[in-house]
Amino acid sequence: MGLGSTTRRPHGVTIVSSVEVVPLVDEGLGNSAYLVELGDGRALAVDASIDLRAMSEVVERRGLTVAFAADTHLHADFLSGARHLAAIQDARVLAPAAGRREFSHRGLEDADEVDLGGLRLRALATPGHTHEHLSYVLLDGERPVGVFTGGSLLVGSAARTDLVSPEQTEMLARAQYHSLQRLATLPDDVAVWPTHGAGSFCSAAPGTERTSTIGREKATNALLRATDEDAFVAELLDSLGSYPSYFLRLAEINRYGPILDREPALRPLDAAHVSRLLADDAMAVDVRPVPEYAAGHIPGALSIPFRPAFASWLGWLAPPDRPLIIVHSTHQRPAEIAWQAAKIGYDNLAGEIDGGMAAWAASGQPVIRTKLARPDEIASRRVLDVRQDSEFAAGHLPGATHIELGDLPSRSAELPDEPTVVMCGHGERAAGGASLLERAGHTDVTVLVGGPDDWARDTGRSLESGT
To answer: Which among 155, 424, 447, 449 is annotated as catalytic?
Structure first.
């Protein structure tokens, strides 16, 4: 193929200038890692998660060894797999020198280059998402063929700049402006391979595309087309919503370089053992679908239905420093639940109830139920909408109270104990909200099955917009 030409293969594999780049997408966290074949059976991994299962499958199938593991920044939303790749593959870790990692790596600064054995990787300082952020330009000879932009330039957007501190958010947004302008000087046909994408709380981009080109972003990315720095900053800051609380501690864990010494798993525990743990500060996390949770659950259990967004909500709602007991359905895979927890640094899963809720109930342990309601069954009860601010503003039930689900653990005391219907877009977050209210002592809580559009359709009434 000619230099700079691009084709796509099944499963998102891209050929750029005869360089094969395999994106490995985590749909739940909304992130992409990348695997680049370097020739001679070697590969480069970029922004790999500690959950290396998908990458390992590609590496083993193609007979590769990961020779280099590059991180663009200290990740706040997942544990980096770079140090683990160094341990199991003897990969050389490449990372921003300003990140001050406490393990063996080559610290890179602006304009530093790494010979990958034919191809080269050039570091570009692109602060904004974090202070130390680097992008990596992949060079074939002197020709840039693609750039790993991490949390800088995203498809249709740029990553958030408020993860360091409120006092530094605007300063970092201004740095992000200059970083995007710098990336925009690359040739139009250069591929853009960002880490954060749709579904990531580090990203404001709503689209489904996860890779792009410099030319396409210059033509379509509103932030790159902002009239000046002030307009860019205003637009970026206006797009920022809330983010999971675990973001505030994971970057420091990544600075020390996590390594898994065993496969994540859930240890089976009998009901009596679980009861003793719960009495001694453990918390039950019920990951079953909403109807199963509502039909009967452990008193005080936190409902986080297992779905792609599970890890984000676990890290937002469940404490990282208390033993967690998982309650799951027979059709849900315990190992997958454990992996989703492990990739955000939750190593406090004490185990699962052996036999599930059936065994818990059969042993005589207490079980409570939560009511479910259709949109036409709300009547005069208080409605608590736990969706994100932007969702609520776009359309909500008239008179609804609004508290984001992530804020509810600290704000449930604001709500008097009265009959309450909790709602979100479909019901999963509403079940989480209802479980938090029950933990706070509320005695008459109902989960709405459906969302605002279902309510408008079933009742023939109009939604309100704004806050």
So the answer is: 424
